[in-house]
Amino acid sequence: AVLERGDAGGDRAAAVAVYRRLCADEPGDPCFARLAELARGKGDVRTLFEVITDRLRWLATGDDRAAEVPLFAERAQLRRALHDVRGAADDLDLLLAIAPEHGEALRQRAELAGDLGDGAAAAALWRRYLAVERDPTARADAEMILARTLAEDLGDVDGAIEQVERVIAQRPADLTLRERLVGLATQAGKWPRVARELREIARLRATPGDRAKDELRLGRVTRDQLGDADAALAAFERGRQLDPLHLDLLREQVELAARG
Question: How far, in Å, CA of 238 to CA of 225, rounded?
Answer without folding.
Answer: 19
